[in-house]
Design a protein that fits this description.
This protein is mainly beta and about 140 residues long. The chain has one domain. A 4-stranded antiparallel beta sheet has the order 3-4-5-6, with helices on one face. It has a two-stranded antiparallel sheet with strand order 1-2. The two termini are about 15 Å apart. The relative contact order is 0.18. The chain binds zinc ion (2 copies). The site of one zinc ion has 7 residues, from loops.
């Protein structure tokens, strides 16, 4: 029954108030959740996930600190999120734990190892789960 803290970083959505109330039809291309991108760490081209937000690279698992709430792209940090470890969540499956290289924030992203297109590197994720005990978060 080792409950790791009470904090769930991914669970704050979606009840936040609208920031600035973006108009429907307003262009917000790179804010949109599920665009493809080029990984800042390994330079590979990452395709959109299709179903939910692609928030990290499936090849090296790195991410960028761009969200406060997952998918909102509201963080001004933009630092590289370095995968430290992974853990399994009964409801959500594998969660990857990150630390931002720039500001030190700890973030968790849900793994997309079951994605149809470019699924996460499951070997890397499993390797990361073995490091879960080494970090004190
Ligand atoms: Zn990458
Ligand atoms: Zn940051």
């Amino acid at each position: 029954m080792a409950k790791k803290h009470g904090r769930k970083y991914g669970d704050l959505s979606p009840a936040l108030p609208e920031r600035g109330g973006s108009l429907p039809g307003e262009r917000k291309n790179f804010i949109k959740n599920d665009n493809g991108f080029v990984c800042a760490q390994c330079d590979k081209t990452v395709q959109p996930l299709g179903s939910s937000s692609r928030d990290h690279c499936p090849f090296c698992l790195y991410s960028l600190h761009v969200d406060i709430v997952p998918g909102d792209r509201a963080s001004g940090c933009g630092g590289l999120l370095v995968p430290l470890a992974a853990e399994t969540d009964a409801r959500r499956g594998y969660m990857i734990i990150y630390r931002c290289k720039k500001c030190g924030a700890i973030k968790r992203n849900k793994s997309a190892h079951d994605a149809k297109i470019q699924p996460d590197n499951i070997d890397l994720i499993i390797e990361l789960t073995t490091r879960r005990g080494e970090i004190n978060i």
